[in-house]
């Protein structure tokens, strides 16, 4: 079967999926160069919808009614965000982005993120990183907000370069490239730790909520996306964002429901909920608890055994 090996490298479908994933990431990178992060980042939830629909038809995974409701909420929220998205002011050089990145408000945000990440890595991760899902996902989300800002800056610099305004001669462009590489490496390292330690159905919605929220905050501070917008548009964007978040959580809850039903029976209780996973999401602990659960028949048999 090739479990734990590299047999999947011989599968054309795996290579097709890898190529499409790379194309999608490149398209996402380009999107940040042409649209504000407050618009691009929440729309990433649409990939979850596409994955759920493709899994329903190609992998024969049942899309529960809860998942259908989640898809509808994600689509509705995305439409609201697109309708009320702010107009991005044109950027003429990477030095202009550097001026935005060095303004006092964003420097305060940057310093806060660095202090929190160092605190989480050095103090909280060794002590409760394997019992509290918020530690690893917090590191990923904080670094992810900085990586998106750097990706947007780098993408804009490359776009201007392709338009004939060479931005590669500026040190700021290479600095943003270094920040992107550093943030992505740290982000992926701790995301893999979170997925390896906790249930994916717990990690995915928490990470998406924290990452998207922090990215929007960073974008509003650095690029001033909400300047010039009226209160109604901002409230509409926030409502659309909340709808997308709720839809994402419902989609992951539906996956958790189907997984629990397939392993425990149609009328069995669900696997551990999101709130439980926040503080006791270690899969080994859950597995140990499940193995210690006794069925009523087993209890009766043990009572009948002679001493």
Automatic annotation (TrEMBL):
Any Gene Ontology CC annotation: plasma membrane
Subcellular location: Cell membrane; Early endosome
Domain of life: Eukaryota
Key words, A-Z: Cell membrane, Endosome, Ion transport, Magnesium, Membrane, Transmembrane, Transmembrane helix, Transport
Principal localisation: membrane
Pfam families documented for this protein: Mg_trans_NIPA (PF05653)
The protein's role, per its UniProt record: Acts as a Mg(2+) transporter. Can also transport other divalent cations such as Fe(2+), Sr(2+), Ba(2+), Mn(2+) and Co(2+) but to a much less extent than Mg(2+).
PANTHER family registered for this protein in UniProt: MAGNESIUM TRANSPORTER-RELATED, PTHR12570
Family listed: Belongs to the NIPA (TC 2.A.7) family.
Name of the featured protein: Probable magnesium transporter
């Amino acid at each position: 079967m090739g479990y734990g090996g590299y047999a999947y490298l011989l599968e054309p479908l795996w290579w097709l999926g890898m190529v499409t994933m790379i194309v999608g990431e490149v398209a996402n990178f380009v999107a940040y160069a042409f649209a504000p992060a407050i618009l691009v980042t929440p729309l990433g939830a649409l990939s979850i919808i596409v994955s759920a629909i493709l899994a329903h038809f190609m992998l024969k995974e049942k899309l529960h009614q809860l998942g259908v409701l989640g898809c509808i909420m994600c689509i509705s929220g995305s439409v609201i965000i697109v309708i009320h998205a702010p107009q991005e002011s044109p950027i003429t050089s990477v030095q202009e982005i550097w001026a935005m990145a060095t303004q006092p408000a964003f420097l305060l945000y940057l310093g806060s993120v660095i202090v929190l990440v160092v605190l989480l890595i050095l103090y909280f991760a060794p002590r409760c990183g394997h019992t509290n899902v918020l530690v690893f996902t917090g590191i990923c989300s904080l670094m992810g907000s900085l990586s998106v800002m750097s990706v947007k800056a780098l993408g804009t610099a490359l776009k201007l370069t392709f338009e004939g305004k060479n931005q590669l001669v500026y040190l700021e462009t290479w600095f943003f490239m270094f920040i992107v590489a550093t943030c992505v490496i740290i982000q992926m390292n701790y995301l893999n730790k979170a997925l390896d330690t906790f249930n994916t159905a717990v990690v995915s919605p928490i990470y998406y909520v924290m990452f998207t929220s922090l990215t929007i905050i960073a974008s509003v501070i650095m690029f001033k996306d909400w300047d010039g917008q009226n209160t109604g548009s901002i409230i509409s964007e926030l409502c659309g964002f909340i709808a997308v978040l709720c839809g994402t959580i419902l989609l992951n809850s539906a996956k958790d429901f189907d997984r629990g039903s397939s392993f425990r029976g149609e009328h069995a209780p669900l696997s551990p909920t999101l709130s439980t996973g926040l503080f006791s999401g270690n899969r080994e602990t859950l597995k140990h608890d499940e193995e210690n659960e006794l069925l009523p028949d087993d209890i009766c048999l043990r009572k009948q055994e002679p001493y």
